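Subgroup meeting minutes
Present: P.N., E.W., G.H.
Scribe: E.W.

1. P.N. recapped why we're keeping a running log of single-chain structure predictions: easier to compare across weeks, and new members can see raw inputs and outputs side by side.
2. G.H. added today's entry (472 aa).
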Amino acid sequence: MLRGTYIRVQFSEHTHPRSLSRLAGTMPIWAALLRTKTAIGQILLGRDALVDFKVTLRVVTASGEEVQDTTPRFLFPHEVLRNPAFRFLNLGDYYRTHPERSQPSVETIRQDGVYLVWDTDRLQQALTAEQQKTFEAEVKDYSPFLYAFLPYQGSVWADINEQSTGVKNRNYLYPGLVIGINRQRLADTFEFSPTRFETFSRNALIVVHFDGARPDQGRKTLQEEVLGLAQRAADRAIQYLANQRAFLRPAGESPTPDQRQVERDHQDWMFNVRTHAQSSPLLMPPVSYVSIPLVEQDVIGLFHQLVALGVFPGMRVFATSQVKTYDCLVQYDSPSGARGMRYVSPNDSPLGVAPFILGTSAKFQTGLLTLEFKNNLDGLIDDLDGDSPKKFSNINICVCWSSVAGSFKGYQVEEVEERNLEERQYPGVTHLLRKDGEGHVVQLIMLARVVDMINAGNLRLSEPSPQTVEAR
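Output recorded in log:
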């Protein structure tokens, strides 16, 4: 006699959306949805032998019917395939043949992401001595396992979801703390508070699984002590992953999700650069750059060309460094009446400063200013929230191309407009960066906004002048 479970999902005329196809209309989307949101997606974490059943998915649409066997396991992000393949490093496999605190080998750097699986013993070792004592009973009774995945930047999640479903804007895998009990996922995601690296943690997916713990009636939560263990274990995984960042590509290195293929050799690099120049041109004579920046070095080169063309009137560059804590030392020193120094309107000298800032002196001069370069603002936020020695209050100006993330927890980014013009301290500043609890404001120069003004004809370029930039 055949035995098994049959599940049918059907919307009535009173539900929203009325058509099931609005929720998902293709086999790849349904497979991803069922594997990440339902009990079909068994959370096994190395215990695949526990599954002794199979799942056949039948999708009926207006155009026909499709039947396919579906893997009855939770879809972990490192399992998603792409051509060219993602570079996702299994930290457990790597450290079985390498010392834990050794420098990454050449072939393992610039990963798209890293992941790990901790069994009960390894998870217990990661807890602090106090946490081991507090959660001794829960560890013994419920045998927790942990999975953690961290991409090099948040936009990788969009690519993972697109590759798994075949369409954009479908998010079935995303960061957060997921808790499973008896191989089934609970609720959506749970909150947890990292002791450090809070910004860094917002890109990580942590899955903690328990055997035998008791969820509530609606499977939305579970015992307070077990939830506390999951949250503390997630924090310990974040602290561990933060020490593995040397494996990852620099945050914000690629301004778009499409530019992620690791350039393994010179030919690949040349092909990618030419392709990028065609898809993202920067046509702005006499500027010599032909495409928008891909990496921080491009930002530095473009910035110095714009300095020489008078976009930042009066700026003098004293030094740049790749090895010091901060990148660059500059000073503004110019007649107050120099072109572009005084703001007139959004269409005339839009990057000038307010009369209040200029004052009545015939000369605009600042002290020495600390300047940071980043490809995107995300990189600076990662430095400030990580273990970098850089201090928010020591940075006067940050020059970057733009920002990948729309917002940053604990920070506020504000564009300079007429309403807040007097907060622009130096010519050329496009945005302001504030940090909660800090009175200091970092002046931002987002080159993407500067280029928009130049292309719109609101900001004029002057002929290169050898007196504009001074390097010592």
